TrEMBL record:
Pfam families: Peptidase_S9 (PF00326), Peptidase_S9_N (PF02897). This is prolyl oligopeptidase. Residues 488-700 form the Peptidase S9 prolyl oligopeptidase catalytic domain. GO terms for molecular function: oligopeptidase activity; serine-type endopeptidase activity. It is found in: Periplasm. Its EC number is 3.4.21.26.
Amino acid sequence: MRNQNLLAVVVLCAACQTTPKKEPIVVNYPTTQKVDTVDTYFGTEVKDPYRWLEDDRSPETEAWVKQQNASTFGYLDKIPFREDLKNRLEKLWNYEKVGSPVNEGAYTYFTKNNGLQNQNVVYRKKGDGPEEVFLDPNTFSEDGTTSLMGLSFTKDGSKAAYLISEGGSDWRKGIVIDAESREVVEDTLVDIKFSDLSWKGNEGFFYSSYDKPDGSELSGKTDQHKLYYHALGTPQSEDKIIFGGTAEEKHRYVGGYVSEDEKYLFISAAVSTSGNKLFLLDLTDPNAKLVTILGDTDSDTSVIDNEGSKLFLITNRKAPNKKVVVTDASNPTPEHWTDLIPETENVLTVGTGGGYFFAEYMVDAISKVLQYGYDGNLVREVNLPGVGSASGFGGKKEEKEFYFSFTNYNTPGSSYKFNVETGEYEQYWKPQIDFNPEDYESEQVFYTSKDGTKVPMIITYKKGLERNGKNPTILYGYGGFNISLTPAFSIVNAVWMEQGGIYAVPNLRGGGEYGKEWHIAGTKLQKQNVFDDFIAAAEYLIDNQYTSKAYLAVRGGSNGGLLVGATMTQRPDLMQVALPAVGVLDMLRYHTFTAGAGWAYDYGTSEDNEEMFNYLKGYSPVHNVKEGTEYPATLITTGDHDDRVVPAHSFKFAAELQEKQTGTNPTLIRIETNAGHGAGTPVSKTIEQYADIFGFTFYNMGYDQLPNQAVLKEFKD
């Protein structure tokens, strides 16, 4: 641990930042060929000169990727403190990390990473016996790019099936093993996608996938998801389609899960990322027919548990913030639902464990947990360890103890052992990390967006921060798909804050922090609200002297990459650095790749109608890069194997920026090879990537050395 005198030096140095003027690094951009490609939408011609970059299998695209990376890394190699950042990231990352345990059969299973292992290792122990390695994904491939993406046990714990991803792909392979001996018991299953594995007894399991698309499996369109049943001991070619195989059952997302008592199979079917139909199948009756619980996609509804034929569901049907209802399998449709845990002003998620419901509410993006009986009566409020995010409240019905985790932006995640009968808990595991949370603080502010809407934002920084407009700041956002950004610790953000940096996260419309209405307010023809919220957050930070344009970076990934792309093209004067990651950047064609058509609930498509086309074209980042404009220093990041948001989005945006940028700000693209959308990325690659991102950011804020050299000197000494 650092001593108090050194801490004083650290705080002092952070307050004395300077930004020396220096000569920019000269970038030699590759020439990107332009091809006359034109689409016509409702009588309007739209040029797409970089369409050829969509072909991820062509030698021309492969050559372009190599040339761009050569240019980008030629620039990054010249940043004088890039290696210092990498070393500090490695130093801080190098602590043991332990996941919350779960009980399966006679064993307790948990994940652990000794510090810098590329992938977490699954361990187990029997009773008080010694722990042993159960699965080590680091042995799956030499470079650590094959990751474990799912693990499911039979109810008695005797068998297990797990999913692996190669190179970050969403296409998975499934492997079945005898849990006791860990020996593989049958051939590997292939082409599983967007799926969990759910066992039916010890006989087999349910999984979902698409038919492989024509052409590239990385970018080809997939829009008919199917639920299969795999019987152990039979070839995958004989797997039975349970749902999704007909034109009437065609949906883009289909999933099946078996109830804990193994009485029912519940099937969810959706055409987009929001709203689903719901069905059940009685597994105890071999002649049972599919029963409809919900026949429309007007809500997000799922079964969370059952007691015999009594079903407990969570839904936002006529309840934008969600509620728990109860019904019977004999009459499960909405007219027979009865409220059990009513809707409140705060958004609800529910876990089950030990015979209780655990209702987690988001109160301005902060966790509050209430424990209920299955009769709907409140048992207690769980007094959490602090202000932040709690997760993992759930376990098996017969278990009276389970584990939950707690974190916030400046507190590394710890796990706690919880007693369901008393409501008491004790700390199970706390990380031993070279980072003192007491040196940092978070504050929540509420600022006003363009249309008068109040938006919350959590701002985290080192104590003693001086609001002088000169603090390097990352403004991070998402704003879509009903996803909520709640406080969570990040090693990379800790390194940023050690350097005197501010990390600010607004809860934009389009997210789920305030329920369905907040989500809808950032979709389709209201998507501009999300960008306005983000712009207003930046203006708040500048107006209140947290930072200034010269020290502001905006960052986001996936839908957040769209957010950054739209913001930097609409307001290039607002920030010094833009960091769009794996972004959805071509809004006229996103729905033609992989499962992109399922995002239409949030975005609409250019084929819907003329109004929707014009709206999308009006903010699509690829189509709004203007000649003669000085854009911020930009580092686009993507993976060459991203089959969720295909890298062509980033390729085309980079080409547009490089052609039209005015001034000396660099516009670079960093393309990770043998990598996907982000999940399962090896630790070594993540560290290298963030050393590059932070190095690029600080350098383009004017630094020729890191703001806080005291931290670096300390860990070197």
